[in-house]
Amino acid sequence: MKKVAIAMLFAGSTLLMADGAALYAKCAGCHGKDGKTKALGKSDPIAGLAVDVLVKDLEGYKAGTTNKHGMGGVMKGQVATYSADDIKAVAEYINGLK
Fold it and tell me: Is residue 39 in some structural domain?
């Protein structure tokens, strides 16, 4: 019985974990499915960027303190609902787009 309870607890916690690919879906419209598109012709491609750089930038956009390429307002709206776990998950996903 203990094994069943532990397995259920683990399964439930994994369902709550952020899914970087799903979170990236709304990014793909500007950055491209592969992260290699210059968003609105302004930004550098984001595919393969370091996770720590992405996390810092996304946190800055969320806080309204980052405005790279004049895209601060757009990006703030895009990441406004992301939790810290969401930001980490999408950053890891983007890092894997090489």
Answer: yes
Q: For the chain, what is the HEC assignment?
A: CHHHHHHHHHHHHHHHCCCHHHHHCCCHHHHCCCCCCCHHHCCCCCCCCCHHHHHHHHHHHHHCCCCHHHCHHHHHHHHCCCCHHHHHHHHHHHHCCC
Residue 56 lies in a domain: yes
Q: Write out pLDDT tens, residues 1-34.
A: 555 445 444 444 444 568 999 999 999 999 999 9
The per-residue pLDDT for range 26-70, each reduced to its tens digit, is 999 999 999 999 999 999 999 999 999 999 999 999 999 999 999
Domain assignment of residue 25, given as a range: 18-95
Distance CA(60)–CA(73), nearest Å, equals 11
